[in-house]
Input
Amino acid sequence: MGPSEGTRELVAFKDFLTRYSPQLSMTVRCCKQFPPLHVVNEELMSGGRDLGMSGGYFWKAFEISEAEYNQFREEILTDPSLDIEYDIELELKPSLKKWCGAVLSKHNPRRKNSV
Output
């Protein structure tokens, strides 16, 4: 993955999900939620996004298998430094956009602190 112009580099899935994914990283980091397989694959198949002045990241579009997903999910959900959870109630949200919206509505850290 890398910028639209310039060098590309390999990154670990954990880093992709928590730092580089244009659509998922903020939701995963701030709301501490791990996305379902179809949401991860929607982001991976996008090939990246241009984020205007912030740049963006691009990669060759691909999907991961259910076995790969389960391995990544296990690694991330059991990593105490990340403190990320999986909300089974949100796994049927049909798209990345709908999942991110539902996560923000249910797990927004700003709302939890104000209650």
The mean pLDDT is 88. DSSP finds six helices and two strands in the chain. Residues 4 and 31 are 28 Å apart (CA to CA).
